Amino acid sequence: MRDLALLPKAHLHLHFTGSMRVSTLADLARRHGIRLPHVLLDADPLRVPAGERGWFRFQRLYDAARACVRGEDDMRRIVAEAAADDAAEGSGRLEIQVDPTSYAPFVGGLTPALEIVLDEARRASDATGVEVAVVVAASRMRHPLDARTLARLAARHAGDGPGQVVGFGLSNDERRGDTEQFGPAFEIAHRAGLARVPHGGELLGPAHVAEVLDHLHPERLGHGVRSAEDPHVLARVVEDGVALEVCPASNVSLGVYATAADVPLRALVDAGATVALGADDPLLFRSRLLDQYVAAREVHGLDDRALADLARSSVRASRASAATRARLLAAVDAWLADDPAGPTAPGTGPGAV
Ligand SMILES: [Zn+2]
């Protein structure tokens, strides 16, 4: 059996605070004298029921974790560790999502908050070999004019390389805010060459996916799993070439599906959708990128060829340069060609002595 940690992949759905190691969160809380809810530090993944009460609980815990991030050193540490953890799991490209608004008060404003993340993304890329780029995400909980401000800021740092902004997102409770009102912010991002990567179709069903497609014209959808519930919406996702950032552990933790087996991974892939697996918030879901590929193998029964296809999809849906994508795709081919049980395994191939 091939080692999934060695399968080259791109990680397209990971939130800044949510990427944190539990040990790092505990350390930051200690340094800043903050008492955290016990469930943030215990060993179990979060499990909340679907619906507003469940989301509220998730959001409260997320906010408690975010309150421990209080300055430049903390922010740099999060990016550096996210890159190191991705490197250990075979990721060659990380597009980490950050809303700089929450950190701005500690570092002198939105611009320095984003620039710290970008600078550390460059450093982390050099240190780990994982290309780290950034998605700037606005929040549905705030005014659409705030989203426009963030889109303009993101546009100033647009590019495809390490330490550059590659996309513009929209996160938080899908039930909040009027999707259409965020259209102008996404237009600003698009004109700057950024990918449009809003969340949609996780907490809400296919009608929400259609609404996001209509008004925000995404290149990728955060989640979008529930497009599987409507063949017309799913066909539209496929025809429009919208990649889905599917995060199975997140879906189960947030009560969208009862078990990992219920996540419609095969249905999406079989319909022809481009699927890129992601971890979303490993801090709360206790499940990192590699775990998603392991679940695809063990729970959904995908063989190595299908797993390699998932990895290729993640690379193709990334905003990496053509050269980086070609390098990673070649490495996926090499992973698949190197069959540990086959005739070319070390010591057994034709060249063996
Ligand atoms: Zn997310």
From TrEMBL:
Superkingdom, taxonomy of origin: Bacteria
GO MF annotation: an example: deaminase activity
Presence of keyword Transcription regulation: no
Domain called Adenosine deaminase: residue spans: 8-335
Keyword annotations: Hydrolase, Metal-binding, Zinc
Membership in a protein family: Belongs to the metallo-dependent hydrolases superfamily. Adenosine and AMP deaminases family.
Listed name of the protein: Adenosine deaminase
